[in-house]
Amino acid sequence: MYIAVVGPGDDATPAEQDLAEQVGYVLATSGAIVLTGGLAGVMAAAAAGCARGSGISVGLLPGDRRSAGSAELTVCLPTGLGELRNGLLVRGADGLIAIGGSWGTLSEIALARRAGVPVLGIGGWRLADRELVTETAMSAGDAVRRILELAAANREPGTGR
Question: What is the pTM of this model?
Answer without folding.
Answer: 0.85
